[in-house]
Amino acid sequence: MTGSDFFDTNILVYAYDSHEPDKQKKAQDMLKQGIINGNAVISTQVLGEFFTVVTRRIPQPISVFDASEIINNVSVMNVQEIDLLIVKRAIETLDTYKISYWDSLIVAAAEGAGCERIMTEDLNHEQLYYGIIATNPFS
Asked: Is the pLDDT of residue 1 over 70?
């Protein structure tokens, strides 16, 4: 999937969390453009984390029903499944880059989907992970 951008959970959360309006607008614009261009990728991990965060952890949580509807809507993006090969690659990634398992799983999923960039606040801005550049769109 050449030219694709992998969107980490925080980007998806910001798109639906009105607590930080500047980040919300930026995240919404990025996701909209990625969907229009057909180059947006998320993973099943991102969907699960998104659900947990927006229904429990943001200042104004949304309902389970609304979160489920959002997941249905954003699933028009390419969704990378987390399978055994991705989990094993994440463990290698953790060891290679000394990052958390969950961040390693994001990197492994992005690699598995053939992405060029990972849009995230959680990884080091402009660092390469197996040739995939981490980009903090809010920096």
From this structure: no
